[in-house]
Write a sequence for this structure.
């Protein structure tokens, strides 16, 4: 799929990985893709910023909702607003855990969860046929080659303490879903290559995950964003 991505769209994927590393997140989610998209100089990104989705505001929402460091993996799939509606304050839960077990407790737990997930998928002794392991490794190397780009380190407002995640950072299921949306957007417009406009449209089409809550927190409407992006590219064509 990534072979169809235009160079600037590939760079966005690379920047999303760098944002995830900077924030200490051991996964690449829709929120990291959104943060990378709003920071470019492409028309779709300009539209998003005109509607209040600036890199600074998006990053603040990501950190507010899932935090920094490996422990964010434990909170990243939870709906903060829905839990608040039934009286559960994630910030209070996080503070109580750190008060009882130390400030690095969530980080250690997040790393354990992340490491355990990877081992269960890749260790042949867990029942995975060696041929599937080799096939997965070949695909991983090919994907890494496609997404290699010379891009500066992505700066931002926040940076997790400690060592940054290294090696491959897996896409979350919802990030993969947003990329599938991206491909469908390009197909619907009969475009041969996938650009940042398709990435933006694929992200704002998400019904779950962090992107809808970020849009809501920043007062942005997904239908209005979609209409504005399509109108901007219609004017340019």
């Amino acid at each position: 799929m990534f072979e169809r991505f235009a160079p600037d769209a590939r760079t966005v994927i690379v920047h999303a990985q760098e944002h995830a590393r900077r924030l200490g997140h051991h996964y690449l989610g829709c929120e990291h893709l959104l943060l990378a998209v709003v920071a470019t100089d492409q028309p779709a990104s300009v539209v998003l910023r005109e509607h209040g989705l600036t890199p600074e505001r998006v990053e603040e929402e990501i950190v507010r909702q899932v935090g920094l460091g490996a422990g964010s993996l434990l909170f990243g799939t939870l709906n903060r607003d829905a839990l608040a509606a039934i009286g559960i304050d994630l910030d209070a839960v996080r503070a109580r855990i750190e008060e009882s077990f130390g400030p690095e407790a969530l980080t250690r737990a997040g790393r354990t969860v992340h490491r355990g997930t990877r081992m269960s998928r890749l260790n042949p002794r867990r029942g995975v046929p060696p041929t599937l392991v080799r096939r997965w490794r070949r695909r991983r190397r090919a994907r890494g080659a496609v997404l290699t780009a010379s891009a500066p380190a992505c700066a931002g407002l926040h940076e997790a303490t400690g060592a940054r995640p290294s090696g491959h950072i897996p896409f979350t299921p919802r990030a993969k879903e947003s990329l599938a949306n991206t491909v469908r957007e390009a197909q619907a417009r009969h475009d041969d290559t996938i650009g940042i406009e398709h990435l933006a449209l694929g992200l704002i089409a998400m019904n779950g995950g962090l992107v809808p809550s970020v849009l809501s927190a920043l007062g942005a409407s997904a239908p209005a964003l979609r209409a504005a992006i399509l109108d901007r590219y219609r004017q340019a064509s």
